[in-house]
């Protein structure tokens, strides 16, 4: 039997759809403008003729981006940082979150207070730089990984999820003689795939978007990640400087603005390709990890 919705519920549904549609439009329009600009001719960009559809359609901007060795070098550095950083993040999060999820762990509450303290009060820029310098990590990819090796927010999310797992499973495993390491690898992690995928995505996106650490700790042009490369490219408003940065453009119908837009799109595509495959686990993990029994 179909239940009829009240007038108030129908009004709420209409308002909800309208607000979400407007939000989607506001989010998509800037992206569509950047895509259109990256595929447009130079004159159209100079005279501000591009809105959400390419004018003078061509792929010259993308051809130059893909032919630029500096871009691929920065892309490779970013890939290494994301891979190593995410792996280290997940190892530290799991092996810190598992013991802290056990109520019988001595000193658990003071440690949790310390974790929450780091969320409220973060280290200033100058002391952080001096610490990284003393550790010898300036102009090293480890300067992009070690300072953010553990996220307090993600750790709390992981602890909350581990607490939701039935304690009877762990007690039965201990009775069977399993060590805590085997319990983590063979019981906890297989049952925690939603939150693991969620945290992996959180960490990977954070590393992918992080340009501030590179701006502070990296001065060697060969070690600049893609985010810092893109930041410096967008900061170059002078046409001659932009052309020098991208190489000789005399034989191409391109402009610095078009090259910037094409680089932005290329740098965004990897995350857009990954997200649809982990969306189901991402939503489930975020919801389950936010519940407290």
Q: What does this molecule look like?
A:
The protein is mainly α and 293 residues long. The protein has helices at residues 7-38, 42-46, 60-67, 69-100, 108-120, 125-134, 152-163, 167-175, 180-191, 193-209, 212-217, 226-235, 239-246, 256-289. The longest helix is centred in the last third of the chain and has 34 residues, at 256-289. The model has no long low-confidence stretch (mean pLDDT 82).
- Classified by CATH, the class of the largest domain is Mainly Alpha
The major sheet is characterized as: none
Which architecture of the largest domain does the CATH hierarchy give at level 2?
Answer: Orthogonal Bundle
**Class from helix and strand fractions:** mainly alpha
Number of strands: 0
Into which percentage range does the β-strand content fall? Answer: under 5%
CATH superfamily of the largest domain: MetI-like
Principal-axes geometry comes out as: globular
> DSSP helix count?
14
CATH topology of the largest domain: MetI-like fold
Distance between the termini: 35 Å
N to C succession of SSEs: HHHHHHHHHHHHHH
Cα-based radius of gyration, to the nearest Å: 24 Å
Low-confidence stretches: none
Helix content: over 70%
| Mean of residue pLDDT values | 82
Structurally, the number of domains stands at 2
Oligomer: single chain
């Amino acid at each position: 039997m179909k239940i009829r919705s009240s007038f108030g519920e129908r009004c709420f549904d209409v308002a909800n759809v309208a607000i979400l549609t407007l939000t989607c439009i506001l989010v998509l329009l800037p992206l569509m403008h950047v895509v259109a600009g990256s595929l447009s001719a130079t004159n159209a960009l100079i005279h501000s003729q591009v809105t959400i559809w390419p004018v003078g359609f061509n792929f010259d901007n993308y051809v130059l981006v893909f032919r630029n060795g500096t871009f691929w070098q920065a892309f490779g550095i970013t890939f290494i940082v994301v891979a190593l950083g995410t792996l280290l993040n997940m190892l530290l999060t799991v092996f810190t979150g598992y013991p802290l999820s056990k109520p019988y762990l001595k000193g658990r509450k003071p440690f949790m207070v310390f974790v929450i303290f780091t969320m409220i009060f973060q280290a200033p820029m100058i002391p952080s730089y001096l610490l990284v310098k003393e550790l010898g990590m300036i102009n090293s990819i480890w300067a992009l990984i070690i300072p953010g090796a553990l996220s307090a927010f993600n750790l709390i999310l992981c602890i909350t999820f581990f607490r939701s797992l039935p304690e009877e499973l762990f007690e039965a495993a201990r009775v069977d003689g399993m060590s805590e390491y085997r319990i983590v690898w063979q019981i906890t992690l297989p049952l925690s795939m939603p939150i693991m995928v969620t945290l992996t995505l959180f960490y990977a996106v954070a590393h992918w978007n992080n340009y501030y650490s590179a701006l502070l700790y990296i001065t060697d042009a060969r070690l600049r990640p893609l985010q810092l490369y893109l930041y410096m490219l967008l900061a170059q408003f002078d046409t001659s400087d932009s052309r020098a940065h991208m190489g000789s453009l005399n034989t191409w119908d391109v402009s610095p603005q078009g090259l910037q837009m094409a680089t932005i799109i290329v740098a965004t595509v990897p995350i857009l390709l990954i997200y649809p495959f982990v969306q189901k686990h991402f939503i489930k993990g975020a919801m389950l990890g936010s519940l407290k029994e």
